Amino acid sequence: MFEESPHSNKRDLVSIDVLSNARIEELLSFADEISQNLRAWSALCPGLILASLFYEPSTRTRLSFESAMLRLGGGTIGIADPRSSSASKGESLADTVRIIGGSYADVIVLRHPSEGAARHAADYAPVPVINAGDGSHEHPTQTLCDLYVLRRSKKKLKGLNVVFCGDLKFSRTVHSLAYALARFGAHLFSAPQTGLEMPESILRRLKEEFGNEPTKLASFPPKDLKDFPKIDAIYLTRPQRERFQEKEKKEEAAYLRLERKLFTSDAFAEAILMHPLPRTEELPPEWDQDPRSLYFQQASFGVPVRMAILAYCLGRKEFGKELPLPKNGELYRSELGLRCSNSNCISRAETRYTQSCFRLFFQKTFSMRCEYCEMESNPSFWGLQSNRLAWPISAKPIPPTFDADLVLFNNIEELRAQDFDLSPSH
Ligand code: NCD
């Protein structure tokens, strides 16, 4: 899997990380060219087939991808309801994409409720896999649509001031967009609904990898606007209730509602209003006539942007040469039992087809992230395979360099099950 994947030369779009800033700009420029005349591109992908595999509901993403492929001269097949596929008989995602990518289709667009599903599918599918939303993890193609609208309206992507507002915990569109904007040097603000704050692991990544930590606003719009910068965009999301667990359900009070009259200050005068849609109570229709409301544009540009993405993933358009983005951290594969701590991770759903795999970081403090869902895990013990001894991390920190001998455990039962003993010196 991953580095050794037999299909490692294909252009999967599993997270926004796989595209450099330069590549993003190239894709958006190509989408601009396409949008001049959507009907002029049918010679780009004739005879190619897109399979849309949607294990979760969708209107815009699936239909705009299918429309994009048809406009490129290709064809589409798909599953819009997993109950009508062999998934309902217990077929694994790995087997499904292996078959579909074998001879049925040339590219797979996948939406799935488990975090990391697209990365896992990419390991098994012989054709490119495009992530159309994996649990609450990422939604990179929506991010390209969002960036497209931002670039058109603000004439640049660098250094924008953007406020994320609403459910920042489960909104995958927010997560991908925050990573992308951080790379473009944005100043990010967060105005989360209480209980739906951006996850710690995302905040840490923004800070440690991109040197860009969102400023959390005490209220929104802020009460004290002295020294507050001019905001370029407000990015609002609906409550992702389908992902709420008991904790969020219990905490859920009335969700915010963005009142127009509250945004009269200079700081917001030029802010465009963005929303990935669908909207619920947070975005009243009274905003629709406001020229700054660009959410319907975000959706309609989905077609040219996804035409550019398909042409790229299918190798039908020459783009500048580029080396893959460097990945930080050391890859650690766990054969001895440590599983990802996120119960919604694909590695926990498809245990027979995935091997637990993490990236270890030994910067100021030790941290590790699942290679599928990118959530952090906090193991309690570390050990050495050579002497089968283990230590509690609280008593003896993990040595600050990666060693292939290293083994990590969540708890004492796990280490005993693998015939490790606690070191007498701990
Ligand atoms: C989003 C999604 O599915 O994450 N929808 C979309 O693709 N435009 C946002 C949402 O469902 O709230």
Describe the structure.
The structure is a single chain. This protein is of the alpha/beta class and 426 residues long. The chain has helices at 21-36, 60-71, 93-104, 117-124, 140-154, 172-183, 200-210, 246-251, 295-300, 302-313, 346-349, 412-417, and strands spanning 49-54, 75-79, 107-112, 129-134, 161-166, 187-192, 215-216, 233-236, 272-274, 330-334, 356-362, 366-370, 376-377, 381-384, 389-392, 406-409, 421-422. Helix 5 packs across helix 10. The strands form 4 sheets. The protein has a 5-stranded parallel β-sheet with strand order 7-6-5-8-9, with helices on one face. A 4-stranded parallel β-sheet has the order 2-1-3-4, with helices on both faces. The mean pLDDT is 92. Bound molecules: N-carbamoyl-L-aspartate.
Indicate the proportion of strand residues: 15-25%
Spans where pLDDT lies below 50 across 5 or more residues: none
Number of strands: 17
Which molecules are bound besides the chains?
Answer: N-carbamoyl-L-aspartate
List keywords for this structure.
single chain, 426 residues, alpha/beta, five-stranded parallel β-sheet, four-stranded parallel β-sheet, 12 helices, 18% strand, binds N-carbamoyl-L-aspartate
